[in-house]
Write the structure tokens for this entry.
Amino acid sequence: MNLKAVLFDMDGVLFDSMPNHAIAWRKAMTLHGIEMTREEAYATEGQRGVDTIRQMMKERLGKELSLEQAQKIYNEKTQFFHELPEAPVMPGIKKLMEKIHQSGINIGVVTGSGQLPLINRLLKEFGRYLDREHIVTAYNVAKGKPAPDPYLKGLEMMGDLKANEAVVVENAPLGVQAGVAAGIYTICVNTGHLPTEVFVEKGANIIFNSMVALSENWESDFFLTPSLD
């Protein structure tokens, strides 16, 4: 590995926002006749919101929604999300970013979100380490996670890097699957409520139980070993 960049997911990695997203998803989907569990919200995290909606509508209600119809429901979910208290920055993440920054490695974000307020908050909280040109959103790719496209786009935006020149930091099964599919060393930080086995099945190279734990172990040689933590 010739590490030149770290590609972070956003929700559940940079911000402790997944509890709010789960609440917003459940409210929005209930309006349209679907009971979505907290676990389902966590399991589908990282996927483009419109894709989650279209998939659940087809599987649960047998409805085929257009992108425009799904976007309207996603807008409702977004409204519910922004009515909730602002999610805090994930403990340990700024210390980790400082370590990465000091070592001369670049930082990018690859998120399934397309919400402008969240993108602006990224720049507000992490502007020392990140700029807008190094953020991939739902609107930069035709296929979202679990397809490899978002992380392949991330490699491109970081300077047409090769897969062995970056690592991915993810918290979601679909995000882990996307990073692995792109051929990138994929670190899982399990900040949610899903069992570790889910991430093992998706191919995570290593698993930490918190961002603090990842930060504390960043200088170790875990990149060289396939063992899980």
In short: The beta strands are 5-8, 106-110, 135-136, 166-170, 185-189, 206-208. The two ends are 20 Å apart (CA to CA). The chain has a mean pLDDT of 91. The longest helix spans residues 67-82.
